[in-house]
Amino acid sequence: MGKVITLAGKDLRLLVRDKSSLFWVIMFPLLIALFFGTIFSGSGGQMSGMKVAVIDEDQSEFSQAYISQLDSLEALSITPMVYDSAFQKVRTGRLAALIVLKKGFGQTGGLFSDTPLVEVGIDPSRRTEAGYLQGLLAQASFMQLHGKYSSPSLIREQLDKLTLDSGAWKGLDSRQLARARSFLSSMADFFESLEELSIDSTADEPSKRPAMFAVKVTSVTNDVARPRSSFEVTFPSAVLWGLMGVAATFAVGIVKERNGGTYLRLRLAPVTRTQILAGKGLACFTASFFIGVMLLALGTVVFGVRIVNPGILAVSLVAACLCFVGLTMMVSAIGKSEEAVAGAGWGILLVMAMIGGGMLPLMFMPGWLKTLSHFSPVKWGILAIEGGIWRDFTYTEIWLPVVILLGIGTLCFSAGVTLLSRTDR
Amino acid sequence: MVTAEKLRKQFNGLVAVDEVSFHISPGEVFGLLGPNGAGKTTIINMLVGVLRPDEGEVTIDGSHDPAQTQVRNRIGNAPQSLALYDRLTAYENLAFFGHLYGLSGNRLKEQIARALDFVGLTDRQKGIVGTFSGGMQRRLNLACALIHDPPLLLLDEPTVGVDPQSRYMIFESIEKLKKRGITIVYTTHYMEEAQRLCDRVAIIDRGKILALDTVDTLIEDFGGRAIIEGEVAEISVNFTWPGSTFEGNRFTLETQKPMEELARLANAGLNFTRLKVEGANLESVFLNLTGRSLRD
Ligand SMILES: Nc1ncnc2c1ncn2[C@@H]1O[C@H](COP(=O)(O)OP(=O)(O)O)[C@@H](O)[C@H]1O
Ligand SMILES: [Mg+2]
């Protein structure tokens, strides 16, 4: 066991010293969590539109422009309506949600006002999508504003101006508000530094220029188990992104080690193959678990994410981490060079994320894709973690995702180890 | 200490090692000299059990299985591809490998200090290995192989990509190890290194051992003649010397036994203004055995 810990400690040290991997493991998931709506840049052709009613109480030029902006989003299919009939349709499930643009919306553009000027009413069975809808609203508003402002200092300005006690922040106490403010300010610093840095392929995406949107989400009927804020939807998927980052980083690390001389030295040392594997697994698990806890802690402390059931959350997180340890082993075995594994690894992980709802909530997917999502560990990971955060799963409800996660993990682990040992001699 | 018997290894139809046999006695420095691609690394990998030979057998300390823990504990290996973690410090690398060999506490610290001192990296122990020069990395690679005091050391091209100063330090280290009685297997494609460090050398080309003996015997048997060139101050007309060609004051002569020839020249009472002896060396041995130069 001592040697396994030594092996794992070495890998963790290597991870901590690798700045570019840390970005994918920590910063990127955090960006996902915070700016989910805008990071998702809309319009995949195969998307089925979310049917939404719009009630324009403002009747201004601006609100009209905003509605047509919303209409242009493929993810939404908009019908103007009066409140009562819209409410009925949402309640009976014929529409997914209703959006009310309140009087005064035109003056502020809906942004950064003290009282929410946009109200969203949503079908409680579609609570997962509330956060996503919120993102789309922000996106529409962002697109409208995009022409006007494009300098990076706008982000700072927007974040500075952001009144945190408006709708999106409802339910945070004053200490949390203060923390959120200072956190957002350091985020602003971060984005400004990104302008100069330009990190990898994400550099050109509009995600780096987020717009915060004051939205009040209400449920049409009251339901205990629903996300209270969009963060409760985005942080679980951020955790999964973190796990994917760890998996990709470790998979590449394994190939690098095998191709360099160090693996030779490991094999000559008096350690067994099992110990070497266990060391890798332990390091990968520890890193994943730590990232998960860190993201969730940040979500809880700064962004008011509730953890309704810590026990369930712990079980879910452990299962998700174990699953991704297995995935890491498999991904590391799919290629011989670092480049091949990095490329194919991210490819596989992104597909899993895509079909598993890590990017686009499952609701917007056509039926066949939804069926496909059952094969994605990302889907089960998000579901399990949400089970501890707002879905309030019981232990009888959690066992299915947990068993599936552990199953996928075991399968991938065995496949990976078999493939790896084949190339050993 | 180490015996290889008719080792053979093929990679997808290419015979990398063919019928290689040798025996290495305790305390010996045994050289594998051959050009790139000759099969040296493949032989080393079969010796330590990382590669399984297609045919033949390796015996280390009487054991046929190099994977046994007690055999592994007796082998130190400095691979040709550097076996170091770039993002760790020199100290952390040594500590990590030391742990794997079961060292801990004060004993580990002592061994690390010793190894660092041995390769002259004590004042760079906190440096990140990725920032080291090629020579420093090679030295650390050697130190890592020594962390557990193995009686058998395998050095695969330990001076590749190394500056002259580091090369000198590595030579010194190896000579010290030799004095301690450590058995060393040393592969190289530099004939000067084999000539300077090795008790016996196996000349390898295309997977086969072409000749195996002490450096002197190899040169005697396969080196060909030495060439003596010189200039004498004054010379009587019609002076001749058996085997030599004269052009005015200058002469060249080829000989199998340069020392004896020189002694005779000296005794002849000639007054030399210039004298150059180009002895046969392992390079000429290789040339004579293969018809090609080692550097190709
Ligand atoms: N893993 C391998 N797969 C295929 N061919 C190999 C492999 N290892 C070595 N070879 C080939 O075997 C021959 C001997 O290689 P090697 O032992 O590395 O030579 P040296 O160490 O003397 O430079 C070379 O032709 C090399 O290309
Ligand atoms: Mg070699």
Q: For the CA atoms, what is the radius of gyration of chain A?
A: 23 Å
Mean pLDDT of chain B: 90
**Quaternary organization:** heterodimer
Shape of chain A: elongated
Radius of gyration of chain B over alpha carbons?
Answer: 23 Å
Task: Give the termini separation of chain B.
Answer: 33 Å
Q: Enumerate how many helices of chain A there are, as a single number.
A: 17
Query: How far is the N terminus from the C terminus of chain A?
Result: 26 Å
Largest beta sheet: strand ordering of chain A: 2-1-3-4-5
Low-confidence runs of chain B: none
Largest interface, counted by CB within 8 Å of the partner chain's CB: A-B, 21 and 30 residues
Q: Helix-strand pattern of chain A, N to C?
A: HHHEHEHEHEHHHEHHHHHHHH
Q: What is bound: which ligands?
A: adenosine-5'-diphosphate, magnesium ion
Describe this structure in words.
The complex is a heterodimer of chains A (425) and B (296). By secondary structure, chain A is α/β, with parallel strands linked by helices. Chain A has 2 domains: 2-39 and 229-423, no CATH class; 50-219, 3-Layer(aba) Sandwich (abc type-2 transporter like fold). Helices cover 64% and strands 6% of the residues of chain A. Chain A has helices spanning 2-16, 19-34, 36-39, 61-72, 83-91, 105-108, 128-146, 153-161, 174-197, 230-259, 262-268, 273-303, 310-332, 338-356, 367-373, 377-389, 395-422, and strands spanning 50-56, 76-80, 97-101, 118-122, 216-219. A 5-stranded mixed beta sheet of chain A has the order 2-1-3-4-5, sandwiched between helices. In chain B, the strands form 3 sheets. In chain B, strands 5-6-7-3-8-9 form a 6-stranded mixed beta sheet, with helices on both faces. A 4-stranded antiparallel beta sheet of chain B has the order 11-12-10-13, covered by helices on one side. In chain B, helix 8 (215-222) packs across helix 10 (282-290). The longest helix of chain B has 16 residues, at 164-179. In chain B, strand 6 (152-156), helix 6 (164-179) and strand 7 (183-188) form a beta-alpha-beta unit. Helix content of chain B is 34%, strand content 28%. Chain B starts with a strand and ends in a 6-residue tail after the last helix. Chain B contains 10 helices and 13 strands. Chain B is α/β, with parallel strands linked by helices. Chain B has helices at 40-47, 69-72, 90-100, 105-118, 134-146, 164-179, 191-197, 215-222, 258-267, 282-290, and strands at residues 2-11, 14-24, 29-33, 55-60, 75-78, 152-156, 183-188, 200-205, 208-214, 226-232, 244-247, 250-255, 272-278. Chain A binds chain B through residues 2-3, 6-7, 10, 13-14, 17-18, 260-262, 264-271, 425, and chain B through 45, 48-52, 69, 72-73, 75, 77, 79-85, 87-88, 92, 96-97, 99-102, 128, 141, 144. Magnesium ion binds at residues 40-41, 80, 156-157 of chain B.
